[in-house]
Design a protein that fits this description.
Length: 80
């Protein structure tokens, strides 16, 4: 093999390994996203399908206070 062929072989191997690593990362991040979406669906006041921390905008002040009271009541009833 010549130096040029060696470089091409190394380049091809590097590209293949990079593609493989990226595929693994996509799979891992996809699983993490699915877990986050499942947990977000269980949080009061969160829009279904939104990530945790992205609460639905309340329609009015009374609804916002109601949601806040629900969340606080949930924390108050947690076992220690």
């Amino acid at each position: 093999m010549t130096g040029e062929e060696d470089r091409d072989l190394v380049r091809q191997m590097t590209e293949g390994l990079t593609d493989l690593a990226m595929t693994g990362q996509r799979a891992a991040l996809g699983a993490l996203q699915a877990e986050m979406l499942a947990l977000a669906a269980m949080i009061p006041g969160v829009v279904p399908g939104a990530l945790a921390g992205m609460a639905a905008p309340p329609r009015d002040e009374a609804r916002r206070r109601e949601i806040e009271a629900e969340i606080e009541a949930g924390f108050d009833n947690m076992p220690v």
